[in-house]
Design goal:
With about 80 residues, this protein is of the alpha+beta class. About 30% of the residues lie in helices and about 40% in strands. The protein contains three helices and four strands; from the N terminus they run αβββαβα. The protein has a four-stranded mixed beta sheet with strand order 3-2-1-4, with no helix packed on it.
Length: about 80
């Protein structure tokens, strides 16, 4: 199978860690780290931008030690 077709089937995960100081995100393609970002404020607009840049995302893992806008969870569940 050609590599370009094989890569289409990789599972892509977006991991979001909402911490006290920063929100950190990472994208993993299968088991390989792909990208990292950090934000002082994380909003649904930031989430939508991340998903627009990473259209292959199949799963999102959200971890938080702070209160966050529940619209983020609702948006993820609706996807």
């Amino acid at each position: 199978m050609p590599i370009f077709i094989k890569n289409i089937f990789k599972i892509v995960n977006l991991v979001i860690d909402l911490g006290n100081t920063l929100a950190k995100t990472a994208v993993f393609k299968e088991n390989e780290f792909s990208s990292f970002s950090s934000f002082e404020k994380f909003s649904i607009d930031v989430l939508k931008e991340l998903l627009a840049k990473n259209t292959s995302v199949k799963n999102v893992i959200l971890s938080s030690v702070v209160e966050y806008n529940k619209n983020i969870s609702e948006y993820l569940r609706s996807g």
